[in-house]
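Bench log, entry 3. Co-assembly request; chain sequences pasted below exactly as received.
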Amino acid sequence: MYTDKVMDHFANPRNMGEIENADGVGEVGNAKCGDIMKMFLKIENGVITDCKFKTYGCASAIATSSIATEMIKGHKIEEAVALSNKAVVEALGGLPAHKIHCSVLAEQAIKAALADYYQKQGIDPEPILGKQCSGDCHSCECH
Amino acid sequence: MARQVYADNSATTCISAPVLEAMLPVLKETYGNPSSLYSLGDRAKEVIESAREKVAAALGATPQEIYFTSGGSEADNWAIRMTAAAALKKGKNEIISTAFEHHAVLHTLEHLKEQGFKIILLPVYENGIVKPQDLENAITDKTAVVSIMYANNEIGTIQPIKELGAICRTHGVPFHTDAVQAVGNLEINVEEQNIDMLSLSAHKFHGPKGVGALYVKKGLRVSPLIFGGAQEKGKRAGTENTAGIAGLGAAIELATKDIPKKQKYLKAISDRVIEGALKIEKSRLNGDREKRLCGNVNLCFEGIEGESLLLMLDAAGVQASSGSACTSGSLDPSHVLLAIGLKHEVAHGSLRLSFSDVNTIEDADYILEVLPPIVKRLREMSPLWDRIKMEEKEKK
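Structure output for the full assembly:
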């Protein structure tokens, strides 16, 4: 069902854990739907110097969060803002159709952490990041 | 390679050596069409009739009451649809079942609902067992058929079939039971247990896939679901799956030979797993502790999700199943776990281990060796687990 890449990131997740005094923390999903992703960002001079995640969910939820942290760590904020769920799916070598929503969650979790960062800076995140995940999976078009 | 433990016997079982031996000569040599007049056809017919006798003997029925099908799903569809259609002619348009039936029953009922039937699903309570009084209260002179499973496929709970059947008898309503999980695990006697129709499937008790049977009590009118031939007394068309039927006959004979012995054997394995697994904090056993299939263990671990758990167990050599939404391919977890009142977030963390007589007590020990560290690892990753622990702290 899953690619080797997905299974690798699931079995050996990268950057799993928390960052104390993170500059941005974001959480998306909910327990009722079976997925929660939490992202922690350390940002210095416009660069994401560290990124960690914690995920409750299926193998693809764990794998998408793991690879997403790799894709933004060491990169500029603008690149993290631009990270799409499609890029996450591609990096994993594909996901089954009914698991695409996991990649959307990964994108949304990073955006939520960035929004938290911007808010702490006194900047309105919505013009930069757009609408945030409502947390209601049943309302999401990604299903 | 890690030890391999197949613990998903409620999904399907391996075919046993004697069953395969019974099938191979039929596949190789007895290939004649059972409907043909020449001797090769006759021999195939004999194979089928011999298997019919074995199935009948296992259920306490007569061979004339056994109809071979493609499996449990067809038998369920057939039993409910034919009785519903017959009853509708008499103005009866209500069907009583339960909220935690197999989808072969529930989806048939949804189809009949679209055709105008009123469907009443009885509650199954936290222990996963139907109360006969609820059936007594629900049954009316409009009831067309009652269908209640013998033992649940996910949580293994055993229903009071004899009492439920007796209520149906009193009211003159046909009583069907999906006994796919029960045959070979529980002692069944259709006569003593007031059963009018019973579905079974060979691959659940070391027989082949793609073959099952429907028992229909003599006197109940049987109308076909599948048209097109004179097979099965004109009630089920299609050239018979001779080798499969031979396999079903051999498998049911073996599976029902000494059920108490098998129950004792399986209970020792399950009990060890249950006792060991419940030592993990925030875990629970789903379904009644006693009135359950001896080989069924269904657990929930809070703070983790079932699919992750299954894949990590698979990497450790243990094959099992889960009722999480991810494994069902939908947003909602198992309808069975929701029917016994579990919250979504608890049901997502479910694990079903189901054993057969090819498992050993060492399998139980191995599961208990690999399971706790996997649960621990997934909880370490889980923000939900952090929340559960924090809420617990706040309560204190």
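Residues 4-130 of chain A form a domain with the Sufe protein. Chain: A fold (CATH 3.90.1010.10). The longest strand of chain A covers residues 35-44.
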